[in-house]
Amino acid sequence: MTPPARAVFFVSDGTGITAETLGNALLANFPGFTFVRSTIPFIDSSKAARAVKAEVAGAAEAAAEAPLVFLTVKNPRVRRELGDVQGVVIDLLAGHLTEVEAALGAAATEQLSGYHGVGDAERYFARMRAVEYAIEHDDGQSLRALDQAALVIIAPSRCGKTPTTMYLALQHGLLVANYPLTDDDLPMDALPRAIAPFAARCFGLTTTPQRLSQIRHERRPDSRYASLPQCAIELRRAEDLYRRNRIPFLNSSTKSVEEMSAVILQSLRLRA
Predict the structure, then answer these.
(1) Residue 139 zone, left/alpha/beta (φ > 0; ψ -120 to 50; rest)
(2) Based on C-alpha coordinates, what's the Rg of the chain?
(3) What percent of the chain is helix, strand and coil (3-state, nearest 5)?
(4) Given pLDDT bands bounded at 50, 70 and 90, which one contains residue 106?
(5) DSSP, res 84
(6) Quick one: 73 exposed, middle or buried, by C-beta within 10 A (0-12, 13-18, 19+)?
(7) Per DSSP, which regions of the chain are E strands?
């Protein structure tokens, strides 16, 4: 029998992204459970902490099991305020922060974490420039400054080019373009002329015909574009093109954007 849904709170003095990322990485090890997730960011005062306690208490009263509360709160006073929350607290900084302090021989700053803020201004603006570049070069819309791209993602329409491009730009600050392989491109033996000079920077995506047909039907129902035979032909031709031109590629049908990005970075040795 499947256990009842368990309330989960990600509580942070910052954006909550770190708490979500680490907390969800732990929860992923328990696929038999259903979780109802809530993120509560910017908890940087006792007053805000008391509001969190009230919200968690409400969830605890409505459920058979105590909520899980993942914390990334650095201020000791706020953490103490949250110490008696009506849930199971998993403090994702406690202990680890002390270990890093000991290793570095220095005390952690009392300022709120800037990991997901502007922080290093140069790195932040590099990421913003990468996002602008990704938007301009999405789906082959622009070929301007294509030589500046660290990576060109190629694939038939609706194989996951855009979300992967945007993730790599925003998360890693990489200049990434993506280019669609159309009916005109796929019967050819060589890469399309626009991207052929950048073959060494290209990475291909594919998927299953069934998955591609399903996604395309949401965009253009009952069209040739979305038909299973058309999807199968395009994918087969794309994979042939990748192999002929020695373009590394992966199947996106069962992988998250994060997983695909990690494979691409490793394959093309783009990690900083």
Answers:
(1) left
(2) 23
(3) 45, 15, 40
(4) confident
(5) T
(6) buried
(7) 6-12, 35-40, 68-72, 88-91, 151-155, 176-180, 202-206, 249-251
CATH number belonging to the domain at 6-104, selected among 3.30.1490, 3.30.1310, 3.40.50, 3.30.420: 3.40.50
Give the whole-angstrom CA distance, residue 56 versus residue 79: 15
Rounded to two decimals, what is the model's pTM? 0.71
Report, at the CATH architecture level, how domain 121-267 is classified: 3-Layer(aba) Sandwich (3.40)
- DSSP three-state, residue 179: strand
Q: What is the pLDDT of residues 166-201, one digit of tens each?
A: 999 998 899 999 999 998 777 788 999 999 999 999
Q: Do domains 6-104 and 121-267 have the same CATH topology?
A: yes
Structure tokens, 32: 């038999």
Alpha helical stretches, state H, 62-95 = 76-81
